[in-house]
């Protein structure tokens, strides 16, 4: 083989080994491309579907300021979806195809968005716990091996930190309020705690993709490592709020310097992943309807772009 004919697999391995980024123009193994499409698409779909549980409270936010903040947050999630669909498109798949795969159940979105938002405190709990869990995972992903995904993550993480703070601040206001407000904060915390821990994915010994994804530098930490990091960070925050973690087995282990926590209900997690959670059907029905209702906008935008292109061709002549 001549110097100019570098073996593409060897070049790919070199990039991964050196901790450099794989870029869209680079050769990559087909299985790497498929894994990246699966993960980025699942992530994008989660951002977009994740607007629904929070959007549910925009009309009922308790003040004008809270409403404005919540609108901004939900809008950010739509923006995250757009960065991520764009990153996925660099792998040779269209946003249209990805949406079709989501609607037909061939692609997933995060389990966490299949639970209902029953009170205003749920908006606080989602920001604090769900965005907190998301950041724990996404800070790792800023260093992931696929360039466009890692760069999207840097921007997303900055916005997620604001989201987490706004959620914590809602909880802080509630726990410093009336007895009833404290009670709804505790109730929301209890309902979101376990699903937030499950959000990190199955235990390492049951995770299908972790080993290969670690070898490719896609995942730099495992599901269990990230879950532990999240628990260690969040329990002291719950203590500060005066909320009780709904886990009788929770205790701080002096030797390891970590919190020990109880068993997650993995049957419930898999039921939700399979489509049988409390809100799966509603979420997909709503998402599909929005996609169908928006078809005319996409068609009009395409017709406009074609007209512009035609006009500029005419001007060139
Ligand atoms: N839900 O081998 P594993 C946000 C699936 S949104 C559903 O460990 P992997 C926000 C997994 O797909 C942020 N399915 O997989 C937005 C696989 O099935 P398939 C969302 C799950 O990929 C709005 C099987 O289980 N964040 O922040 O190595 C408002 C085995 O799992 C889940 C991301 O999407 C789950 N929770 O690791 C507020 C992060 N977990 O695909 C906030 C990007 C696992 O073979 N994604 N499965 O059929 C990742 O980092 C990884 O994909 C995961 C899973 C850590 C989630």
The H/E string reads HHHHHHHHHHEEHHH
Helical residues, percent: 55-70%
Please identify the structural class as seen in this structure.
mainly alpha
User: How many beta-strand elements?
Assistant: 2
Contiguous uncertain segments of 5+ residues: none
Gross morphology is globular
Largest sheet: 2 strands, antiparallel
Average pLDDT rating: 96
Rounded radius of gyration (Å) = 22 Å
Strand content: under 5%
End-to-end gap:
48 Å
Report the bound ligands by name, code or SMILES. Answer: benzoyl coenzyme A
Lateral strand order in the biggest sheet? 1-2
Our count of helices gives: 13
Quick summary:
The protein is mainly alpha-helical. The protein contains 13 helices and 2 strands.
Describe this structure in words.
The protein is mainly alpha-helical and 317 residues long. 68% of the residues lie in helices and 2% in strands. It has 13 helices and two strands; from the N terminus they run H-H-H-H-H-H-H-H-H-H-E-E-H-H-H. The protein has helices spanning 8-18, 30-49, 51-55, 64-89, 95-103, 120-141, 147-175, 179-198, 210-215, 223-241, 266-276, 280-293, 295-316, and strands at residues 251-253, 258-260. Strands 1-2 form a two-stranded antiparallel ribbon. A hairpin with a 4-residue loop joins strand 1 and strand 2. The protein is globular, with a radius of gyration of 22 Å. The model has no long low-confidence stretch (mean pLDDT 96). Benzoyl coenzyme A is lined by residues 38-39, 42-43, 46-47, 50, 77, 108, 110-111, 126, 130-131, 134, 137, 199-202, 207-210, 213, 219, 223, 273.
């Amino acid at each position: 083989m001549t110097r100019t004919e570098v073996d593409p697999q060897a070049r790919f391995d070199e990039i991964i080994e050196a901790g450099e980024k794989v870029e869209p123009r680079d050769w990559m193994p087909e299985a790497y491309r498929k894994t990246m499409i699966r993960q980025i698409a699942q992530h994008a779909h989660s951002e977009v579907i994740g607007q629904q549980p929070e959007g549910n409270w925009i009309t009922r936010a308790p003040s004008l300021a809270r409403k404005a903040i919540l609108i901004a947050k939900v809008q950010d999630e739509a923006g995250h979806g757009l960065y991520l669909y764009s990153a996925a498109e660099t792998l040779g798949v269209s946003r249209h195809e990805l949406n079709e795969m989501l609607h037909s159940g061939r692609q997933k979105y995060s389990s966490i968005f299949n639970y209902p938002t029953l009170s205003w405190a749920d908006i606080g709990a989602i920001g604090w716990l769900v965005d907190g869990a998301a950041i724990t995972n996404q800070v790792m992903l800023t260093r992931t091996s696929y360039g466009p995904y890692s760069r999207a993550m840097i921007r997303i993480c900055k916005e997620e930190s604001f989201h987490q703070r706004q959620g914590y601040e809602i909880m802080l206001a509630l726990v410093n309020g009336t007895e009833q407000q404290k009670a709804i904060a505790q109730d929301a915390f209890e309902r979101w705690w376990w699903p937030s821990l499950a959000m990190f994915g199955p235990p390492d010994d049951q995770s299908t993709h972790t080993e290969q994804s670690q070898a490719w530098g896609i995942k730099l930490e495992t599901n269990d490592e990230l879950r532990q990091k999240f628990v260690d960070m969040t329990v002291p925050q719950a203590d500060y709020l005066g909320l009780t973690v709904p886990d009788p087995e929770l205790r701080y282990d002096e030797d390891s310097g970590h919190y020990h926590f109880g068993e997650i209900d993995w049957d419930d997690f898999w039921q939700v992943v399979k489509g049988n959670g409390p809100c799966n059907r509603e979420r997909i029905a709503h998402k599909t309807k929005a996609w169908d209702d928006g078809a005319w906008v996409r068609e009009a935008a395409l017709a406009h772009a074609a007209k512009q292109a035609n006009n500029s061709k005419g001007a060139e002549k």
